[in-house]
What we know:
This protein is an alpha+beta fold and 654 residues long. The chain has three domains: 8-90, Phosphorylase Kinase, domain 1; 97-288 and 300-332 and 348-367, Orthogonal Bundle (Transferase(Phosphotransferase), domain 1); 388-652, TolB, C-terminal domain (Neuraminidase), CATH 2.120.10. Helices cover 18% and strands 27% of the residues. The strands form nine sheets. The protein has a six-stranded antiparallel β-sheet with strand order 1-2-3-4-6-5, covered by helices on one side. Strands 13-12-11-34 form a four-stranded antiparallel β-sheet, with no helix packed on it. A hairpin with a 5-residue loop joins strand 22 (513-518) and strand 23. Helix 8 runs antiparallel to helix 9 (263-275). The two termini are 56 Å apart.
Amino acid sequence: MASLIGQSLGRYHILETIGEGGMAVVYKAFDTRLEREVAIKVILPYRTHAENFLKRFQREARALASLSHPNILKVFDFGEHEGMPYLVMEYLPGGTLKQKLVGQPQSWGESARLLAHVAHALEAAHRQGIIHRDVKPSNILLTRTGEPLLADFGIAKLVESDESTADLTGSGVGIGTPEYMAPEQGLGQVDERSDVYALGVVFYEMVTGSKPYSATTPMAVLLKKSTEPLPRPSLLAPGLPQAVENVLLKALARVPSERYTSMGDFARALEQLAGGAPLTDESPPTAPVEKTVSRQPWLALGVIGAGLLTVCAAGVILVLAWQFIFKSPPASEAPPAGAFPASQTPRGPDTPAASRTPTPTLVPAQAVADTHTSTPTRSPTPAQDIRWIAFNSRRAGNADIYIIKSDGSSLRQLTTRSSHELYPSWSPDGKYIVYQTNNGGDQELEIINVETGEIRALTRNECDDFGPHWSPDGEWIVFYSNCDGESGSREIYKIRANGNERQQLTFTSSQNNWFPSWSPDGKKITFSSNRAGSKYSIYVMNADGSNVQQLAPGCVSYFSPDGSQILFGVYCNDTDELRLMNADGSNQRAITSGYECKNATWSRDGRRIAFQESSAGKDGPFSIWIMSLDAPDPSNWFRLTDNSINGSSPAWQP
């Protein structure tokens, strides 16, 4: 195909080539309408001559554009140019994971953290019935800050389903990358566990510096996967913790039913490794594992290498090997009824005997510390109450919503747009977060599904809405806005979580009322206002806006989970410290002194608070700390994020 550099595909002006593969060429382009750089993947012409290809392409492109997850590369548009279909995608200048891998073992802790994000992206796609089929380092793109975004969903399926291009590799194994493909994928038997295997290969390559299987032809690679034991990772990476090796062995089990049953299970195992949390204590896996690095080639491979078998015959051997290895067990070996919990019921005809199910032994957290990187010493946090903490961060330039476990593990970026997202607040079931955004121009409120990354608008109007907080019954979201039309005025409003019944609660003239929050019984709302003068004070009112009472000088405020106390900051009155008071305003006392502390949140049990603090001054950068109210001295604080994250406005998951 002739180069398209300098040409225009509709509103997209092609600038340069940034990648080329067996199925497509990827260009950097400029969107002349939205004035932004994009990446355009143009499917090669000889892939597209089948009569129904363009219809399938359009169908697949719409499905890909519907995927919404912080770690999935966004598809903006699609079209056709002189018979060549193309996809318009987000442009990332950070390169790919393949470019980062240089044949040397990477930190297993950082590898697990990075791939946990990819696993969650795949989990979201699997929920929509989309199998990736070609997970590999070159399809994992990196942002400027090193966060992963998975690309090329459905491309392999799109081309493979075309009868005229079903054997593009000339090997009889279908579309994909054999080094990363699951053994069953060579026979067209693909489900979400095939993606688990492929991501397991990526993890293996990252922590050992090499792929588990390699050969001179694609068929030979798949034959090795079907007949040779897996090279034990710890032989290639001495000192690799047993817990890491066991996760790899389970993900790379030859039989699909012996792998993680879902991508979500694999993601959680990676998160636990990354966070140093103990995993379930189970028996070692029984799948074939090579005990030495050197291997004797299987005789069939030697025959192939000698040219005594044709590719067709090799395909027959692969089929026979697969059927022999994964045949159903005799009835006497089958697991008894009820042997598996409902959530672990084996799938389909490839279910092995119960004795073959791998049950890895995973060692306690203190035994799996990542020796490749240094980790700052942190005060311990109670393992029995590890929850997510949401916050906004400007680590990528603009403000985005992130979540992190309260033990400091599993940092995840939820929003990835160029707009600013601020002030997260959890739904009472812990599944959604409402936040403030300037996506679209003015300030509005949006809700994101934490698990899937799906976003929906809560408010869309011509004024600005700020600082949302979810009610404890999940029905209402309270916030402040300038929609009353008064110049310089901010009033408190509430709106149904479905976007209906917007109600104004405060009515002042040219005054600010802001940062409202609910009492745990949903009957009261605290907020800050300068209605009594130039200084701000904490007020409380009924949920319908009646019976407003002034409590104390201060800014952002939150009821304790039992409703007996109010936590508040006083940074708006020239002193950055945190204070507590009884719910009626009595017994006011400082819990920090001499530190730039603000924007705090309660743990679910009311025993700890998380807050932002800066040693550089009022404008940050900020670290997020956790304080136990039983031991509030700074020497006992637990540092959740450091200044490089620059996190603000933490919100503890209920």
